[in-house]
Structure formats: C-alpha cells, structure tokens
C-alpha cells in the first residue's frame, strides 16, 4: 500500500466517523422523547413578546383556540408576500376560533421596521418579536417562512415549509377541518 492510499483511507475513516457521530447525536438527542415538531404530537412550549411588550404563550390558547404560527422576517420577500394573505385568512376565520401569531425573527433593534411593515399591510393579528430566534430552535425550522397549525387541544396538525398560500383550496380545507374539529 502506498503512502497516498494509506492517507486516503485514514481521511475516509475520519470522515465516516464524523458523519456517524453526527447521525448518532441527532438520533440520540431525541431518544426517549418525540421530536418537538412531530405532526400529531403536542406542539412545543413557546412564548415571546408582542411589539407592545406583552408576553404570549402558545399554551394560553390550549383548550380555547386553533393557532396558526407564522415564522417570518421583514427582509424575507416570500414572507412579505404572504402576510396580506395571512391577514385575509385571519379575518375570514377569527370569529370561528382561529388565532394567527406572526413571529418575526428580525434581529434586535428592528422593532420599528417590523411595526412599519405590519402597519403598511394592515395586519391586525398579534405580531411577536423573537430576535434570538428561539422559535427556530423550538420548532426545528430551516429557513423561513414556515407556518404551523395547532389545534385547540395543542396538537400540531400541519406544517407549511416555504411560502404559504392561504387562499389555496388545500390550505382552506386544512384550516376549516381544524376549526370543525373544535366544534366536535
């Protein structure tokens, strides 16, 4: 065996060990408990402050309302495009028990930019600000926007990755079914 072949074997062995360790860490970290964002399981605990400073917790709505959590930022163009549609969805279903929470992950000091944007769109649902991006870790997201639907019992029932299209037939059906489930 040449020196080059020996070096390649060692590099390959180290790379495979690193990959294996990474997989072990991912699997091992959730061993004995379910993933924080498993559809059909309870939604994770989460709280953040509104732009007005009021603390909102997901658990505040358990047993009372269906909650849609939208993770967004002012610098995210798809997020900006979906916000007026989320407002329309909220207006259409708020009297039926739907709460929409927009969770902005813009950095510290961006409250004014967030406020200016939501005012320009006419958003009336609660906007939370999470500059530390705790929601990203809590809901195990990669990229934004992402939207989650949580039923009245606190169970995570749907997840939209990427730009959400509230007027779509499928989204409307999912929301209506979640709200109908409340009435049963």
Report on this structure.
With 184 residues, the protein is an alpha/beta fold. The protein folds into two domains: 1-33; 47-183, Glutaredoxin. It has five helices and seven strands. A seven-stranded mixed beta sheet has the order 2-1-5-4-3-6-7, covered by helices on one side. A hairpin with a 4-residue loop joins strand 1 and strand 2. The longest helix is centred in the first third of the chain and has 28 residues, at 3-30. Mean pLDDT is 86; it is low at 20-35.
In a nutshell, what does this entry contain?
The chain is an alpha/beta fold. 41% of the residues lie in helices and 19% in strands.
The CATH class of the largest domain is Alpha Beta
Overall 3D form: globular
Estimated share of beta-strand residues: 15-25%
CATH fourth-tier homologous superfamily of the largest domain: Glutaredoxin
Strand order of the largest sheet: 2-1-5-4-3-6-7
CATH architecture of the largest domain: 3-Layer(aba) Sandwich
Number of helices: 5
Biggest sheet, open or closed, and with what strands and sense? 7 strands, mixed
| First and last CA, distance | 72 Å
Low-confidence stretches: 20-35
Query: Element order, helices and strands?
Result: HEEEHEHEHEEH
Please state the oligomeric state of the protein chains shown: single chain
């Amino acid at each position: 065996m040449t020196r080059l072949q020996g070096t390649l074997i060692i590099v390959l062995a180290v790379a495979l060990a690193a990959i294996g360790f990474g997989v072990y860490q991912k699997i091992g970290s959730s061993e004995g408990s379910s993933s924080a964002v498993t559809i059909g399981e309870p939604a994770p605990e989460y709280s953040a402050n509104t732009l007005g400073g009021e603390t909102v917790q997901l658990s505040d709505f358990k047993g009372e309302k269906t909650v849609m959590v939208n993770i967004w930022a002012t610098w995210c163009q798809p997020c900006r495009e979906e916000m007026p549609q989320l407002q329309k969805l909220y207006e259409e279903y708020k009297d039926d028990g739907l709460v929409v929470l927009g969770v902005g992950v813009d950095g510290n000091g961006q409250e004014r930019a967030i406020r200016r944007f939501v005012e320009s769109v006419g958003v009336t649902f609660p906007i939370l600000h999470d500059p530390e991006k705790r929601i990203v870790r809590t809901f195990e997201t990669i990229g934004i926007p992402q939207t989650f639907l949580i039923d009245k019992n606190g169970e995570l029932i749907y997840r939209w990755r990427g730009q959400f299209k509230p007027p779509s037939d499928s989204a409307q059906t999912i929301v209506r079914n979640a709200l109908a489930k409340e009435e049963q």
